[in-house]
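pls design
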């Protein structure tokens, strides 16, 4: 069991479990007693059919009608925006092949978008109906204020999904439309000055002001894109490590060897052996 120094949230807890897991299959589930542990075997059997992620679907949820309907709308919206269509993103009970999530970097409250993350890495995803029970432990932290957080996270996910390796293209589009708007405003001001009896009225009107604002916004956007491009490239070179602090571990065996480190050591050993033979 892993004990955090403080409460880092559900995403950090799941990431800690992913990092520490040594089995080839990982199945997280909530501790509120609403998931049925007997469904784990069914999810794992579905993985054997060639899938990388099997997402649980609480088809018969034991929650309030309003909460269920809001979740249904949110799931449809997430599926429409991301292209990964699932009935129940909020169901924690999912079966993952360990290599799909072990090196994931998720922050904030991005745990509900893990299937989207795995799809970005080529995962084959399917759904399976799982049982759902009334809550027997803990209190729900669900609130409708979370809708705003989900919407912002969804915007970020879509950004990562489409522009993760080319952020300057995203900011470039903003610059493109801003400068086109600025050009239209200046063209309108010039035409107004030509056909107006008082040209200075046109140049000191609203159109040049709006055009100037749009031009500046476009310049800021392209500069932001350059900064994002530099940050992205630095992030790929120096990948961020864990962002939580563990107070202690209970009932843990030896630490697992990091896969990438093991591969690097194997390559170095092979190169050394090859040089020796030469």
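designed seq:
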């Amino acid at each position: 069991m892993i004990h955090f120094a403080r409460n880092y949230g559900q995403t950090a807890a799941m990431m800690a479990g992913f990092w520490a897991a040594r089995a080839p299959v990982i199945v997280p589930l909530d501790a509120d007693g609403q998931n049925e542990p007997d469904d784990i075997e069914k999810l794992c059997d579905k993985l054997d059919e060639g899938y990388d992620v099997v997402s649980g679907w609480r088809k018969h949820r034991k929650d309030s009608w309003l909460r269920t309907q809001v979740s249904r709308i949110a799931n449809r919206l997430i599926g429409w925006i991301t292209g990964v269509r699932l009935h129940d993103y909020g169901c924690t009970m999912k079966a993952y092949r360990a290599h799909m999530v072990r090196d994931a970097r998720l922050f904030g409250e991005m745990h509900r978008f893990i299937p989207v993350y795995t799809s970005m890495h080529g995962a084959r995803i399917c759904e399976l109906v799982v049982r759902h029970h009334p809550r027997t432990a803990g209190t729900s932290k669900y609130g409708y204020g979370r809708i705003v957080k989900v919407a912002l996270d969804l915007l970020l996910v879509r950004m990562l999904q489409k522009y993760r390796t080319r952020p300057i293209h995203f900011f470039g589009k903003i610059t493109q439309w801003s400068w086109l708007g600025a050009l239209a405003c200046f063209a309108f001001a010039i035409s107004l000055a030509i056909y107006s009896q008082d040209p200075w009225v046109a140049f000191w009107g609203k159109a040049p002001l709006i055009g100037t604002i749009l031009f500046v916004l476009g310049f800021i956007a392209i500069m932001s894109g350059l900064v994002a491009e530099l940050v992205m490239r630095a992030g790929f070179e120096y990948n961020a490590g864990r962002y939580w602090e563990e107070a202690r571990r209970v009932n843990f065996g030896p630490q697992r060897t990091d896969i990438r480190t093991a591969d690097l050591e194997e390559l170095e050993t092979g190169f050394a052996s090859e040089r020796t033979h030469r």
